[in-house]
């Protein structure tokens, strides 16, 4: 069964460092998303991406964040200068059509 | 602005009992109402979903009840099992727009 894969599963970084989280969406999907979940809290929308551009972003997705689809398979989330409050699980998700959103297993980011 | 309100925050059920989790939404433009199940350290996984043209959908022990006029939907887990212990999130969406999640319900099923 096709799945969304994310790397790394866990990254520890120092405050102020840049982090890139990588995702390989399901191959025939067209809509891509990043969500964030702070430990024990709700799953929060960050950004959606379609046709090689951002279609929507939340207020969390400030200038420190960027997304890119550098080739036909990868979808990345970059945090330019990490802050302590960026510590969370980051989930990539994809869908082909309206309806089910498929989530990856997540990347745990710990900012020290 | 909370677009979807989920309750209860936590729920303890005995094995074999019925677990009921509720969600209420505000925007009538939403047309897709899924429930996701999340185990610790894992991503959310779709459990069951409903569209507003039906009032109920059942898949095995899981049932969604949908009340369009009240803008509410609920998840019922029949014959709850310890393996159902997880966090459950309702969500809402319209078209290709993002999923908006509820705050989650932590379910514990005791043997």
Profile the largest sheet of chain A.
7 strands, mixed
Summarize model confidence as the mean pLDDT of chain A: 93
What fraction strand of chain A?
A: over 45%
Over all CA atoms, what is the radius of gyration of chain B? Answer: 13 Å
What does this molecule look like?
- The complex is a heterodimer of chains A (112) and B (111).
- Chain A is built from no helices and eleven strands.
- Chain A has strands at 5-7, 10-13, 19-24, 31-37, 44-50, 53-57, 65-68, 75-79, 88-95, 102-103, 107-111.
- The mean pLDDT of chain A is 93.
- In chain A, a hairpin with a 6-residue loop joins strand 4 and strand 5 (44-50).
- Chain A is 0% helix and 50% strand.
- In chain A, strands 2, 4, 5, 6, 9, 10 and 11 form a seven-stranded mixed β-sheet that branches. Chain A has a four-stranded antiparallel β-sheet with strand order 1-3-8-7, with no helix packed on it.
- By secondary structure, chain A is an all-beta fold.
- Chain B contains no helices and eleven strands.
- The mean pLDDT of chain B is 94.
- Classes of the chains: A mainly beta (112), B mainly beta (111).
- The interface between A and B is medium-sized, with 25 and 23 residues.
């Amino acid at each position: 069964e096709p799945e969304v894969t994310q790397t790394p599963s866990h990254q520890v970084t120092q405050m102020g460092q840049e982090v890139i989280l990588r995702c390989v969406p399901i191959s025939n999907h067209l809509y891509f998303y990043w969500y964030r979940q702070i430990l024990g809290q709700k799953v929060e929308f960050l950004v959606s991406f379609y046709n090689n551009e951002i279609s929507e972003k939340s207020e969390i997705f400030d200038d420190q964040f960027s997304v890119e689809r550098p080739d036909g398979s990868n979808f990345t989330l970059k945090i330019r200068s990490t802050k302590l409050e960026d510590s969370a699980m980051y989930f990539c998700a994809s869908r082909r059509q309206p309806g089910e959103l498929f989530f990856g297993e997540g990347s745990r980011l710990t900012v020290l | 602005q909370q677009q979807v309100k989920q309750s209860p925050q936590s729920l303890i059920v005995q094995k074999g009992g019925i677990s009921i989790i509720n969600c209420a939404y505000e925007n009538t433009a939403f047309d897709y109402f899924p429930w996701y199940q999340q185990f610790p350290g894992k991503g959310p996984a779709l459990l069951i979903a409903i569209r507003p043209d039906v009032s109920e959908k059942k898949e095995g022990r899981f049932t969604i009840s949908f009340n369009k006029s009240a803008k509410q939907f609920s998840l019922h887990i029949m014959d709850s099992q310890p393996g159902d212990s997880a966090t459950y999130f309702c969500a809402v969406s319209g078209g290709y727009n993002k999923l908006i999640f509820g705050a989650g319900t932590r379910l514990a099923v005791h043997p």
